[in-house]
Fold each of these.
Amino acid sequence: MLKHFQVPDDIAVRVDVERLRSVTEQVFMHCGVPESEARLGADVLIFADESGIDTHGVSNMLRSYVSGYNAKTMNPDPQLKIVKETPSTATVDGDGGLGLMIAPKAMEIAISKAREVGTGVVAVRNSGHLGAAGYHAMMAAEQDMIGWCMTAGGKAMIPTFGAEAQLGTNPIAFAAPGNNEPVFLFDAAMTSIAGNKIGLANRLGKEMSPGWVANADGTPDMEGGSMVDFVANTTRAQLPLGSTRELGSHKGYSLGVMVDILCGQLSFAPGFNSLARTRRAHFVAAYSVDAFGDVDEFKENMDGMLKGLAATKPMPGHDRVYYAGLPEHETRIERRETGVPLHPEVVEWFRGICAEFEITFDLA
Amino acid sequence: MLKHFQVPDDIAVRVDVERLRSVTEQVFMHCGVPESEARLGADVLIFADESGIDTHGVSNMLRSYVSGYNAKTMNPDPQLKIVKETPSTATVDGDGGLGLMIAPKAMEIAISKAREVGTGVVAVRNSGHLGAAGYHAMMAAEQDMIGWCMTAGGKAMIPTFGAEAQLGTNPIAFAAPGNNEPVFLFDAAMTSIAGNKIGLANRLGKEMSPGWVANADGTPDMEGGSMVDFVANTTRAQLPLGSTRELGSHKGYSLGVMVDILCGQLSFAPGFNSLARTRRAHFVAAYSVDAFGDVDEFKENMDGMLKGLAATKPMPGHDRVYYAGLPEHETRIERRETGVPLHPEVVEWFRGICAEFEITFDLA
């Protein structure tokens, strides 16, 4: 991830991954989430934290989940229901639960169908925040499958030439396994920047870059400006990937619509027909590599491709070229050793919530 | 499409769609393509021409196909082979044919599987140029299915932070049907601009915009520059959608890798393991809406969404907001009436090839 969004080393508190996991599980359980679900939800969050996806880890997200459970807008013990299914598809109702725990179950259904008939495609309605979409896509890669995960909901992205937000940030995650090389794992919003990055940058006191948001009248802000201004003025919607029509914003916008269709329309989610989405909808898919050819050959071929991309001659000012999933893999190795760098404000929040919930606080 | 790439009205020769179709079919047949295949290939090209996708119509592409057949690098009468299949998947060898005619057959396989088990996913290797990917995705939408089509091959796109091209422009097409509203039909390269647009702009004497290509050392060219300079200097690779890391080029780059995996790796296409791709590979998929829920309800919901997007309040300087497929739909209605505007140079090429192939020239 960009250094822009990292907690500066001189103030970061390094917290052991397993301690962070344990506290997170207990927070979920205190909110009424059953133990196995709490473990799963914490695993999704900690995956983001240890991968350096700080926008989707405990620091940015856990407090909003706690608020949702407290306000009873989120169901802590949802009963997932398959509304319709065929040999390769399922339409699932998430019963108002948190996407963190709903999506892995949807992906399990997809993987099981892919094992039977080659592919499994599952659309999910009536769900909550997904966490890092990459976690769910990765589940398929671990089973020698290609994995997709997308999520839609809310209004953040402004259509090209538009003056008002109409779509969510609508991320796409995609995973494909190699043999010895780290999994290719892409996970990104179809806006030029993830929505959560704005909150994170705000906490870090960083300014926005040009091309991230629209001005109040909808025109792309190619000058940049302070976070405070953005947060105060909700009419400043986020720009699609591509930022301006000339740079290709119609592509980011259309990919956003595609995600809305696959998640919201394909799951028949309430409100998606009128752009007035109440809850979130997801899409997961698994394609079994074995259905297309020899798995070992595929993974060897993937290694060749991934090594080739990483060996690309770099441009001036850079010493390496990456592929998606490679920096996160390296960060996981590092953070499992040295801990997750949390902002002191986040540690204080944990201290407070642990006191309130009567959980042992041992993070710092 | 951007006015930038349209033949100026004062020099354009308006050619009747059906005459253009007939001449194109005859050109294919003269190259050894069987009649039914020639008809299909012409249909794919004419769809682009009448939709205003001039980059992928007869003007830009037909001459390169004729060269391929003449040089015997392309097989005019390929025998498509299913190498492996499961209830929902197939791996197809295109026998060195032109993607224009291979992809519709792959899509027919996908549609037929989707009808049986809910989804159909087909990876194709050993194929040629695809034409407009949207044509193939649209086939699924016409059967009340969601359609995907992607294609990979060649080297045009430079990875983020890289100094050399490693991927094709790797377009994604996606179609989903409404009821009364025109189909949502997205079709775009994962570079900031389609490769073919460079040739087209060159013929029109237009300069490149900032953010489209890299400088010779790999750094993003955010100044813009002449087409001639780009064409002369092949080290100036195309930038991924997003153009710079700050604007999100890692997303365009990673979506490009995703397309390479789905097309090249999933079909076990030669050369894709070493980034030395010889032929093209494709990916098509069809998801039956009926497998997920009620088709009429889905199409009504889609109409609501599409109407809502088109009704978005526009930003200053614009009087409308579009969704992908809407302007092309309107252009089709217009061009079926008034003809396809061809550059005089293209008309002259047709005059020449008709004389050489002893085909009646009746375009102007």
Note: Chain A has twelve helices and eleven strands.
Amino acid sequence: MSAASQALRTAKHYGRELSVVVLERGAWTSYSACGIPYWVAGDVDSADRLIARTPEQHRANGIDLRMGVEATEIDLGARVIQVRDTANGATRPVPYDQLVVATGSLPIRPDLPGAFADGIHGLQTLDDGKALLDTLTSSRRLERAVVVGAGYIGIEVAEACQRRGLATTVVDMASQPMTTLDPDMGALVRDEMEKLGIDLRTDTAVEGFEVGDDGWVSGVVTADETLPADVVVLGIGVRPNTRLARDAGLPTGATGGLQTDRRQAVVGHDGVWAAGDCVESFHRVSERPVVIALGTHANKQGRVLGVNLAGGYDTFPGVVGTAITKVHDLEIARTGLAVDEARDAGFDVAVGSVESTTTSGYMPGASLMTVKVVAERGSARMLGAQIVGAGPGSAKRIDACALAVWNEMRADELAMADLSYAPPFSPVWDPVQIAGRRAADAARRG
Amino acid sequence: MSAASQALRTAKHYGRELSVVVLERGAWTSYSACGIPYWVAGDVDSADRLIARTPEQHRANGIDLRMGVEATEIDLGARVIQVRDTANGATRPVPYDQLVVATGSLPIRPDLPGAFADGIHGLQTLDDGKALLDTLTSSRRLERAVVVGAGYIGIEVAEACQRRGLATTVVDMASQPMTTLDPDMGALVRDEMEKLGIDLRTDTAVEGFEVGDDGWVSGVVTADETLPADVVVLGIGVRPNTRLARDAGLPTGATGGLQTDRRQAVVGHDGVWAAGDCVESFHRVSERPVVIALGTHANKQGRVLGVNLAGGYDTFPGVVGTAITKVHDLEIARTGLAVDEARDAGFDVAVGSVESTTTSGYMPGASLMTVKVVAERGSARMLGAQIVGAGPGSAKRIDACALAVWNEMRADELAMADLSYAPPFSPVWDPVQIAGRRAADAARRG
């Protein structure tokens, strides 16, 4: 919808005619998927609040928005899409001059016994959120929740379940929660989850689900034991939803995402565009394509796409892998490359870490935060940073690190940069600057 | 003390002998001057908490620290300082090989009738803070405070007085509080001060002070009226304390600050160094020297100086004018050049502003914040940014803007950069990105 809206704005700006048809299989438009865990937790009181723009609002803006219809086939040569009405199954062709593929991502569902039992929920769409909330607030007696996956969504929904009074276990194959962090930083997240009373089982693969006679899940089977469960939430990630596009012959990369250029034009196919969770993006540090399913990238790419489709010129400059979340009061953020990612990309690295305070140490409310900076050995170029700390004010500092990485600053240049200082906001050396200094010192040693 | 400590560390690193003598007129070392208003307000319970390192700690680190002695004359040719013992007035010579001038700044005291009456306080040193606290907590009946100056210190101390139950008036010659902000942003600060019940009188010059028979201040005289006052605090800024250095022949610029190179070496004088509030710094956007009295710059310059003095190599890369403060719950920050400053520096400018929320709008605790970006007309290069908003989480975003300015990013590149997004931390487009986009659009129009 971001692309559609921007295309109309740009066409209007240039005084061009443009007719925009949008095909949507589901019942919702323009909602915040990232907000769903907070709706489930009760922080947000209704799904309506997550909806940025309703179908009616989009139509009032001049978009021919067709809901409850599914694109089943694209004929790139004839420039025609086969569209099935999900209500009655009737299919009819919709011609186009230019095509936008914004099919998003699909949640990964493990191919395991019992995986489709009642009481097992994904958490990608508003409908998923509603189904989970219906379960959590039903008259069914629920005591134990098991969350599969200790990534962003898994951790957020585990906190939501715990806050709703369920004894909550989180299971993950990896040896730490939040594998986008280095192990030492992930350990801080583990501590906070355990402090919350969440039972975290790492190095634990799920082998199946136990299902009761009524078809409702009753347990999560691992190699060691069966964890009793009255409700299960799957938070094991998403993958680009590209079947339709690949069937039509559009190119995907090793990441599974559609390949576009910086204007969001699909490579090798004039008049075909793509944006959002279904595409791969350029990572400015690893210089490799990556798929990062995140609303802010989708929005930005959609805007760029809309400008270009309507005859303007704009480019998406790529990503540096910035992400942020929280567990209870613990704020968590990262940007750039973690140590292993940097090595995979061919960098030799050095790190610097510090535990410092969010404000001057003598101020009321000073909270502990840990910052880790990853720098290139020798040059001390900023490759990445990670922050785990008590809020408020820890994690959003990642933006300064993200721009340091973005601009290929040296870690010691970050340490000397003119960041803001006053006692209620920072120690006299901001923690990210101390970590930057230490990383630079380490990068230049030996 | 930052320079002294770093010089010893660097000398040790290189295995060099170095003897460091520090001459301090007062009774304190290494304290947070920026923390004094929070001590006066009662947020910090004792002066001890503001002291980062005591004289004893410095001496334990190997510094020959001499307190209560004042340097009265420097003979650059003979490399000798005349040092007066403030206790007994005896003066004796102290020879040196290398000299560091770190004489800081002096508060501006208006040359007006009554300016030295009892009950009129400055607020630069710990002793000033103690004197003001003694007044505020004395048995003397205090009902009205007048603060002269509506800059950072003036606003912070006005809030402190108001919170201590005094009816507080702030007087400033300028037409707005916080003249480092553009008028539209300054107006938001005015609103918050008035909401706090502070009586703010702008466009009001102080002409003198009324003094009672007991020698205690009783009023602040302006062109229009005499404002009754039981206590007065002067917060009208500081100037570099360079008399001693100038008398010795060291060069100062039009700013009044000592002139150094990027290694903090005083221009034209081998073996003479200077850092902190007494020097001028290079402003990376205006490309002019500026004097900015701020602990974080002083610390960084001191570190650079210490490395160089002891035979290493480090440089201070200059400033972009970042500053941050708060009034009650309103957070205030700025970086780079404000509109008038940019024009003075020869830039043609365009601006973009937005009122948005600190978090996604649907999250509990979402607070309003206003961001303004100043960009160069045509190129859309980031020249500056200002943030005024409810906390927590508004003002520290200035660091992302500061690094955008620092790296000469375009405002539209900031808008597309990979800043962190999750509902508890930001809308899907961070407010600084929306303001950046608008500034870039304005910069390219016409």
Note: Residues 295-309 of chain A form the longest helix (15 residues).
